[in-house]
Specification:
The complex is a heterodimer of chains A (about 600) and B (about 220). With about 600 residues, chain A is α+β, with helices and mostly antiparallel strands. Chain A is built from 19 helices and ten strands. Chain A has a five-stranded antiparallel β-sheet with strand order 3-2-1-5-4. A five-stranded mixed β-sheet of chain A has the order 6-7-8-10-9, with helices on one face. In chain A, α1 packs antiparallel against α2. Chain B has a six-stranded parallel β-sheet with strand order 2-1-3-4-5-6, with helices on both faces. In chain B, β5, α5 and β6 form a beta-alpha-beta unit. In chain B, α8 crosses α10. Chain B is globular. The two termini of chain B are about 35 Å apart. The chains are: A alpha+beta (about 600), B alpha/beta (about 220).
Chain lengths: ~600, ~220
């Protein structure tokens, strides 16, 4: 439902974009042609032709790339790099401020090409370091350009008949002479950083990705060669002719860069254009957001769902461990199963429209390879954890239920019988007294006394197993009763609120255990037992003013407690500094 | 008021064995068992119309829910038929139940631990006292409440003898009964009672039952 209109929107965007691309292409071409026409005044045809070819190759390649993949910024970037290439060519123009602007703002091409290399293939700078390097390049070269513009006097510096320093605020011939050199150093630094980042990226990529990164090899090689030729030519103090030849050589090599980019993009996009991006993004991504966004981009369907087959649960589960239902065959969603050696691995649920291009989904799933397996394992793990958590809670609930049943059975069975027996014994004792059988009377009395003790013990036992008052009246009266019997005075601060049975039982046993520990170890004079609700959480606190230093490892009681609380998804906090009392705090979420 | 002639008793208890045991005890004490029930509905059917019993002895946990049927029945009977006294028996003593039953100044109500049934005399005594409009609280409830207040300063100042008096008072014993138990002269007892009320800061009233409730309430809440 979501993907179909998106696809149609894409077609509309495509048609509009063709116009934009055409207009931009014409403007940039005119700019480039104008530049070389001006340049022809000073330089030889060969030099100008090579310069034009090198710069215009970027424009042309950019236009083609942009047309093929309007949603990627890479084509635009290439065209911008091409346009920047021609700024310097306007230097000899004898029109008002043009020479000043041209001379001041040349030198951005190296930064733009570095930008291209780091943004390959989707036009986005992936990392923080990449962004920093490129931003630094533009800002630094821009700053030098502005400074140059302010110090520039073209009539003096160019010995031309152009107007005197239209932007000149101060004139500093020294600075003007060195501005080119300064820009070369800055651009050189950016290029070196770029090459380093390229090498790092290539080293990190797998075999498939290395193929797709081939254009970056070319960029790195060209940059390296350019650097070498520049260094050797300047240190050897070559003649002007030789310097021109070296510049021409650099231009020829530069031609390779847009060509390599174009070939790389084509190779990637021949059949299923976004898959190359997908493969590359799998290498870049840390996996926090998972495969879904990458697949959604590759398939151009934001509604894509990825679910993994968990054999032991006999179903498909998403990354967070929730079961995913397969779409109804009559709905506008379709499912593509992914199998490995006949066993289901995962399913991609996507828009029905994608079925028209089954190869796209097929290639996309093949490309996800290892990542899919990883995510499947992750989904399996999460689902297992959920299951374990649910089963812990079921075990606790079952235990509570069993305790309640034992208590009920004791109450309804043994306890009633014992009381009835006690009555019989007393009556018999009275009858014996009436018939003056004193021996029998004494025996009956002794038995009745024994029986009374037994009843009391049984009562305490049954109450300890599960206090009926807890189920009937809730936490507050049940804790009151425990407090009444505690050897240390306990002040109870619990309202009459009712909670789910498992929460009440856990809170009760927490307090009973804590009070027992206080009585045993704390040497306290006073204890407070508190329970209050806070946004869906019951917070239970037992604080005493005793000796502190309570150690959780000391008893099995606390371990059992933690298990109980953990089964409900709650938390236990014990703070017991020596000499400053003990505070046990338990949070129990309930719904 | 003491009923003329035999006390008419209805017993509600789901354990047949125990129900018969209680019936034996009260019959042996010269009372008449006019009805027996095994659950809440059965009990409510027995108490109605013109042929009312003097006392109802009921278990707390009975069908259908086996939770607090006895308490609900007691409150309902006391509200509808003020002349019918109710003695509630419980396997466990819960202060919360004692307060529900006796907290708002009820008379003719008792709350006893089931074990007391075996002390034949105590059961009979409790039935007679509620029938007379008195209130009966199991000594253990009182003991616990007093124990709970051990740390409190007001109760600290009470002497051992005064505590004995207080406990018997809280159980709902009359002055003469207390005198008999503790072998005190009525005058000495009066002195003790005044002293207790002074120390606990309770305004003494002549009425026995208000006195019980005042003590209970004080012990529970103060």
């Amino acid at each position: 439902m979501r993907a179909t209109p998106t696809a149609m929107q894409g077609m509309g965007v495509r048609r509009n974009q063709a116009w934009v691309i055409a207009v931009v292409f014409v403007v940039v071409t005119a700019f480039a042609v104008g530049g070389v026409l001006v340049q022809l005044r000073d330089d030889s045809v060969a030099t100008v032709a090579l310069n034009f070819a090198a710069g215009y190759a970027f424009v042309l390649a950019g236009a083609i790339a942009w047309r093929r993949r309007p949603e990627s910024r890479f084509g635009v970037l290439m065209m911008v790099a091409g346009a920047l290439w021609f700024i310097g060519s306007y230097g000899p123009a004898n029109v008002i401020a043009v020479p000043s602007l041209a001379a001041s703002f040349e030198g951005f091409a190296a930064i733009a090409i570095s930008h291209l290399a780091l943004a390959y293939p989707d036009g986005r700078l992936a990392g923080r370091v990449e962004r920093a390097v490129i931003t630094f390049g533009y800002v630094a070269v821009g700053a030098v350009s502005v400074a140059t513009l302010l110090a520039f006097n073209p009539r003096r510096d160019f010995q031309c008949q152009c107007p005197v320093a239209p932007f000149g605020v101060f004139t500093n011939p020294g600075f003007v002479n060195h501005h080119r050199e300064l820009k070369d150093y800055l651009a050189g630094a950016v290029v070196v950083a770029t090459v380093a980042l390229i090498v790092k990226r290539i080293r990190r990529s797998n075999v498939t990705q290395r193929w797709l990164l081939a254009p970056l090899w070319v960029v790195a090689a060209v940059a390296g060669l350019t650097f070498l030729t520049r260094v050797t030519s300047s240190s050897l103090h070559l003649s002007d002719t030789t310097t021109t030849r070296v510049d021409q050589l650099v231009n020829v090599m530069s031609l390779l860069i847009p060509a390599a980019f174009l070939v790389g993009l084509f190779r990637m996009h021949m059949e299923v254009s976004p898959i190359g991006d997908l493969v590359l993004s799998l290498g870049k991504r840390e996996g926090a957001e998972g495969l879904q966004p990458a697949l959604a981009r590759a398939l151009r369907d934001p509604s894509v769902d990825v679910a993994y087959w968990l054999p032991e649960r006999n179903g498909y589960f998403d990354r967070s461990g929730h079961e995913v239902a397969l779409p109804d065959p009559t709905s506008d969603r379709a499912a593509t199963m992914i199998e490995r050696s006949g066993e289901p691995v995962a399913v991609i649920v996507h828009d029905r429209a994608l079925l028209e291009n089954p190869r796209l989904v097929e290639v996309a799933t093949a490309a996800t390879g290892m990542s899919l397996e990883n995510e499947r394992l992750q989904a399996e793990l999460r689902a297992q954890i959920d299951e374990v958590q649910a089963s812990r809670k079921r075990i606790i609930d079952a235990g509570d239920q069993a305790r309640r049943k034992i208590e009920r059975d004791l109450h309804d069975g043994a306890q009633q019988r014992l009381v009835a027996l006690a009555i019989s014994l007393r009556m018999s004792s009275q009858e014996a007294a009436e018939s003056r059988d004193f021996d029998a009377g004494a025996a009956f009395d002794a038995a009745a006394t024994e029986l009374r003790l037994a009843t009391q013990e049984l009562r305490d036992l049954a109450h300890g197993i599960h206090p009926a008052i807890l189920t009937e009246r809730g936490l507050a009266p049940a804790v009151e009763r425990v407090a009444e019997r505690a050897p240390v005075p306990v002040s109870v601060d619990i309202d009459d609120e009712r909670y789910p049975a498992s929460v009440e039982a856990t809170a009760y046993f927490v307090i009973v255990e804590a009070l027992a520990n206080v009585a045993k170890h704390a040497q306290a004079n006073a204890v407070t037992a508190r329970a209050e609700r806070r946004d869906g959480v019951l917070v239970v606190e037992v604080c005493d003013d005793g000796v502190g230093g309570a150690d959780e490892a000391g008893g099995t009681g606390m371990v059992g407690l933690r298990d109980r609380v953990g089964a409900l998804g709650g938390r236990v906090e014990l703070s017991s500094p020596v000499g400053h009392g003990t505070r046990l705090r338990v949070e129990l979420p309930y719904s | 008021m003491e009923a003329v002639g035999q006390l008419r008793v209805v017993i509600a208890e789901d354990s047949v064995l125990l129900r018969e045991g209680i019936a034996r005890v009260v019959t042996a004490a010269g009372m008449e068992v006019t009805g027996e029930a095994g659950d809440y509905d059965g009990l409510m059917a027995l108490v109605g119309g013109t042929d009312l019993p003097d006392v109802v002895i009921t278990d707390i946990r009975m069908p259908p829910t086996r939770t607090d049927e006895g308490i609900r029945a007691a409150l309902e009977i006391r509200a509808k038929y003020p002349d019918v006294a109710v003695l509630v028996l419980s396997q466990y003593l819960e202060t919360a139940y004692a307060v529900t039953l006796l907290g708002d100044g009820a008379r003719g109500v008792g709350y006893l631990l089931k074990d007391r049934v075996a002390d034949v005399d105590e059961l009979v005594d409790a039935v007679r006292r509620v029938a007379q409009g008195g209130s009966v609280v199991d000594p253990e409830v009182v003991e616990r409440l007093v124990a709970k207040r051990r740390g409190a300063s007001a109760l600290d100042s009470i002497t051992a003898r005064e505590r004995d008096v207080l406990e018997l008072m809280a159980q709902g014993r009359s002055n003469s009964a207390i005198c008999e138990r503790l072998t005190l002269s009525p005058k000495t007892l009066e002195t003790h009672v005044r002293s207790i009320f002074n120390k606990l800061d309770i305004n003494a009233e002549p009425d026995d039952h208000r006195r019980v409730l005042a003590v209970l309430t004080y012990l529970r809440e103060a």
